[in-house]
Design goal:
Number of helices of chain B: 12
Order of helices and strands of chain B: HHHHEHEEHHHHEHHH
Largest sheet of chain B: 2 strands, antiparallel
Shape of chain A: globular
CATH class of the largest domain in chain A: Alpha Beta
Largest interface: A-B, 59 and 68 residues
Radius of gyration of chain B: 21 Å
Strand content of chain B: under 5%
CATH architecture of the largest domain in chain A: 3-Layer(aba) Sandwich
Oligomer: heterodimer
Largest sheet of chain A: 7 strands, mixed
Number of domains of chain A: 4
Distance between the termini of chain B: 48 Å
Number of helices of chain A: 22
Helix content of chain B: over 70%
Strand content of chain A: 15-25%
Strand order of the largest sheet of chain A: 8-7-9-10-11-12-13
Strand order of the largest sheet of chain B: 1-4
Structural class of chain B: mainly alpha
CATH topology of the largest domain in chain A: Rossmann fold
Shape of chain B: globular
Radius of gyration of chain A: 29 Å
């Protein structure tokens, strides 16, 4: 007996230890506050503790979560600023989900936000006695979740409110029938494990019966099964495919669209965003939008509004998205009536452009496209992503209309030249360049291949042309310089006493000189004294930065160059030691210690360039396409760096920021 | 405190899963993946019956039987049809997915307003109608809900009696034969025991316990979901192995207790990880590390103490 107990002692000890740790960490928390009885989340003056809980990681759920964050931000609630946000994710594990629910309910949170039905149920169950304010979202049918929500908008517990997302399957089906009255068989593949999808399917069955359409169903259990399921539907001679609010199917939308296009039938969905992926139309609210609405409801609760007085919304106004491109090659005729196009919130015309109906210019050949970049950085990656997505957004289809290769010179000029040569010898039809260097290398070597540039501050200084419309006959693209004009008043706002600014620049880089000159002009106009130190190579930067910081500056305002971009961590460290705030114009610098960054949106610039490229592919002559000047810029504020360097950040500035960083 | 009690309750409920895995994995030496399906099956059956107004005890018992049937099917596939055991488990687990959807009629069944064993346990021994906030004790900083305590007491009794029954069972001739089947198949075959039926029976009991765990789980958490079995077999095995390395013995009683302790400890560790505000993406990594430490830790401690003793002696 004694021996047995001895054997168990280790286990007992560990269990007691774990319990003690759990209990003690609880006792170090603030004492239970008295909550107002009507489910309001206490006074909004202090920092609110908010928990966000999702049951699993799936792209669509993550989109929804992002929406919530953005919705909260729009109301001024940013993590560590007016609220402290803790995120939980059960990674699909139910037992962990329950543990999380317990932690949330026992954890002194002012508000719990749950995404997905499972998370709603777990928290609602654990929260029955504590009644902590709870906002839910990404739930298809809150009534069926059995958490005490009734059919009326005000029939909900006093501490629980949220947004239900009932996908408008009925509208989608009715519209399909209207477009093609001969429609008699619709195929629907769905995952029975998803509540959301199930709700859709049940409704689809009813509506189809009413519309005298036969609904042919197939089940999928994972993304990998989608292709086969679609195949089985096509074998059963369906006239169209419907994709409901099914996470599995939406994840495999490309496969669905391709299979349907091969069979010459259309796909339509009740989740927006899929028309871009080849669906004929979609009508509904996407998860990001739903998330944003949830975030707004959450902010109302945080502002002290009583939950009992907030209605549960069951649907978000649906958005209609039409895709004329998908009409091509269809077996049956599905014409869009003019009034429908009028109604549409978004529309892709035959040319692949949004919202501008125009005559069709089909691609005559498949284009070999090469993306060339000089260095790798966050901004370059953004620009490349913009290029890729811009091509798709223009209605071109990869592998059908163009084949894409990406090459990167890794900062080596010789390699860059070699890449251009390689592109020429591969019979590339078009070169897309990212950065000034890539543009220049391409212009010099590829004289008769169309070149479309992006992420260039000044194409004229680079020698691509004299004005927007008067330029080399094979070169066009989108450009945009640092938004120095907008930066000056921001510096004035956060650092009212500043008089002297300093920057490093690289005389050997044409783009750097240009950026520097812009900064000189802007600083002069804003009555700042600007001091500058020139550097010519990476290894000169540490000394250059040191000497710059000893010039009695009030702040560093760093104009762009490749060299200072790559060595920015060093510059940032030197500035921090000298207690100088850093203002910069390159997006990647924000996470590396710059306080306020005003960057061109290189993603948008990439999209703009891609649209010019699409024009070229559709047969417009390059010489006839003027350069496009991007004007959009993004304000990124690194709150921690800003506070460390003694900046005061006014509320209005924080509100106008596109992104706020905390480290 | 709520969370501590929650972890204990969860650990106790899932210890039935651990005991089920112990039987198939350790005693029968059969790698049984049916578990992922049968825990959901248990939950689904219990939930479906509760929703249609059946007695919770009966619903829980039927869930146990259903799990037993699932295990028996795996056993028959593996022993009579000679399908590889791992594959047999996968087949049944896959099939159960559809069965579970059929049983529930949809993918998610809420039980929040149904009478269940947990609501029964919450009222245990009191005449008062439980109110949402009523019935709390305060010890220092910690507030304990008496209803939670009743649930935990109830679970302890249930798990204790199941454990006792299992312990008694493994002392009977049948139980001994079953243990021998896993240890030495040829020997027990020579003694005239039908190995195939013995394995099938063992799997039935194992999955019955797993389904029982599922039935209690849905009543505790207030809803059944068709995806709730995901990853359960791994955590079951982790509990068994943690328990084994904790008690350091292969005596059957010790193994049973070890599984329960392993399961409870595991849930406590997860709760601690959550409490420390871990990045959600790292949670699974942290739990895997716990299992690793639990596996390596005791033997390392043993080795160190032996070294220390020899050092003291010499």
């Amino acid at each position: 007996m004694w021996q047995s107990l001895q054997r168990l002692s280790l286990g007992m000890f560990l269990i007691l230890l774990a319990s003690a740790v759990l209990l003690l960490s609880e006792s170090s928390r603030p004492k239970d506050r008295q909550r107002p009885p009507d489910g309001t989340a206490a006074a909004p003056a202090r920092v609110m503790r908010v928990a966000m809980f999702q049951m699993a990681s799936q792209p669509i759920l993550d989109e929804g979560a992002q929406g919530v964050l953005d919705g909260l931000q729009e109301a001024g609630y940013v993590d560590k600023h007016k609220m402290r946000l803790t995120r939980f994710n059960a990674e699909g594990d139910v037992a962990t989900g329950n543990a999380i629910a317990q932690e949330l309910v026992g954890g002194e949170y002012d508000l719990i936000i749950t995404l997905t039905t499972g998370a709603l149920q777990a928290v609602a169950n654990a929260n029955q006695s504590r009644k902590i304010p709870h906002v839910f979202g990404l739930v298809s049918d809150p009534v069926k979740a059995g958490v005490g929500i009734g059919t009326g908008p005000m029939e909900h517990p006093d501490h629980l409110v949220g947004i239900g997302t009932f996908p408008p399957v009925d509208q989608a089906l009715e519209m399909a029938k209207k477009l093609n009255p001969k429609l008699s068989r619709i195929g629907l593949a769905w995952n029975p494990a998803e509540v959301n999808s199930e709700v859709c399917t049940i409704l689809a069955r009813e509506v189809c019966q009413k519309l005298k359409i036969e609904l042919v169903e197939a089940n999928v259990d994972s993304t990998s099964a989608v292709k086969e399921a679609i195949g089985s539907l096509l074998d059963r001679q369906v006239d169209a495919l419907l994709v409901g609010g099914d996470v599995t199917m939406l994840g495999a939308m490309d496969v669905v669209a391709k299979s349907a296009a091969d069979a010459r039938i259309p796909v339509f969905t009740c989740m927006p965003g899929n028309a871009l992926k080849g669906a004929l139309f979609d009508v509904g609210a996407n998860y990001y939008e739903v998330g944003r609405t949830v975030g707004k409801v959450a902010s109302r609760v945080l502002n002290g509004e009583s939950i009992a007085k907030i209605p549960v919304e069951i649907a978000i106004p649906p958005k209609l998205f039409l895709n004329t491109l998908a009409l091509k090659n269809l077996r049956d005729s599905w014409p869009f009536p003019a009034e429908l196009i009028q109604q549409a919130d978004s529309y892709i015309d035959e040319q692949g452009r949004h919202d501008k109906p125009k005559a069709s210019q089909p691609l005559s050949k498949k284009w070999e496209v090469r993306i060339l970049s000089y260095v790798t950085s966050q901004d370059v990656d953004e620009a490349i992503r913009g290029l890729k997505e811009g091509l798709t957004k223009s209605g071109l289809v990869e592998e059908r209309d163009y084949a894409l290769k990406v090459s990167n010179a890794q900062g080596d000029m010789a390699v860059l030249a070699g890449s251009v040569d390689a592109a020429i010898s591969d019979h590339t039809d078009m070169i897309l360049t990212v950065s000034t260097q890539a543009l220049q290398a391409s212009m010099q070597r590829a004289k008769d291949i169309p070149i479309v540039f992006t992420m260039v501050a000044n194409p004229f200084a680079a020698g691509a042309g004299k004005s927007d419309s008067e330029h080399l006959s094979n070169v066009t693209g989108a450009y945009g310089a640092n938004d120095v004009q907008r930066m000056m008043p921001i510096i004035r706002q956060v650092l009212p006493d500043a008089q002297t600014l300093g920057t490093l620049y690289v005389p050997a880089e044409i783009n750097s000189v240009y950026s520097y000159e812009l900064l000189v002009d802007a600083a002069r106009a804003a009555k700042y004294e600007l001091k500058a130190v020139g550097v010519t190579a990476t290894n000169e930067v540490p000394d250059g930065a040191q000497s710059l910081c000893q010039m009695h500056l009030d702040a560093v305002c760093l104009s762009n160059s490749n060299i200072t971009g790559a060595t920015f961590p060093n510059i940032s460290r030197v500035a921090r030691e000298a207690k100088l705030p850093v203002f910069a114009f390159m997006g990647s610098t924000a996470s590396q210690g710059a306080s306020i960054v005003l960057t061109r949106d290189y993603y948008d610039m990439g999209v703009d360039s891609a649209q010019l490229a699409a024009k070229v592919m559709r047969g417009n002559s390059v010489a006839s396409i003027p350069f496009h000047q991007s004007t959009k810029s993004r304000l990124i504020i690194n709150v921690t760096a800003a506070r460390a360097s003694g900046l005061t950040l006014p509320e209005s500035l924080l509100k106008s920021a596109d992104r706020i960083l905390e480290k | 405190m709520t969370q501590l009690i929650g972890s204990y309750s969860m650990g106790l409920i899932l210890s039935l899963l651990a005991v089920g895995v112990l039987i198939s994995f350790r005693i029968l030496a059969f790698r049984d993946l049916t578990v992922e399906g049968s825990i959901t099956l248990g939950g689904a059956v219990a939930a479906a019956m509760l929703v249609s107004g059946w007695n919770p005890w009966l619903a829980t018992f039927v869930a146990f039987l259903a799990g037993g049937c699932a295990g028996a099917v795996t056993g028959v596939l593996a022993t009579k049809l000679k399908i590889n055991g791992l594959l047999a488990g996968i087949l049944v687990m896959t099939a159960l997915y559809s069965v579970n959807l059929r049983v529930m009629g949809r993918s998610n069944l809420p039980l929040m307003n149904e009478k269940s064993l947990m609501t029964f346990a919450q009222h245990l021994g009191t005449a008062e109608q439980p109110t949402a906030s009523g019935g709390t004790w305060t010890i220092g900083r910690w507030v304990i809900r008496t209803a939670d305590l009743r649930v935990i007491g109830f679970l302890t009794v249930v798990i204790g009696s199941v454990g006792a029954v299992m312990y008694a069972f493994f002392q009977t001739n049948l139980g001994l034969a079953m243990r021998a089947t896993g240890d030495n198949e040829q020997m027990i075959c020579a003694l005239g025991v039908e190995v195939g039926w013995m394995q099938t029976f063992g799997l039935a009991i194992s999955n019955g316990l797993v389904a029982l765990s599922g039935a209690l789980l849905v009543q505790y958490q207030g809803y059944a979901d068709v995806q709730m079995g995901m990853g359960m077999v791994v955590w079951g095995m982790a509990s068994v192995i943690i328990g084994e390395s904790l008690v350091g013995s292969r005596q059957i009683g010790m193994l049973l207790i070890g599984s329960v302790m392993g399961s409870v400890l595991f849930r406590l560790l997860v709760a601690n990880a959550l409490r420390q505000g871990l990045n959600p993406n790292d949670l699974k990594l942290a739990t895997a590390l716990f299992v690793l430490i639990a596996l390596v830790g005791p033997s390392a401690v043993d080795a160190a103490s032996k070294k220390f003793r020899t050092a003291v002696k010499t």
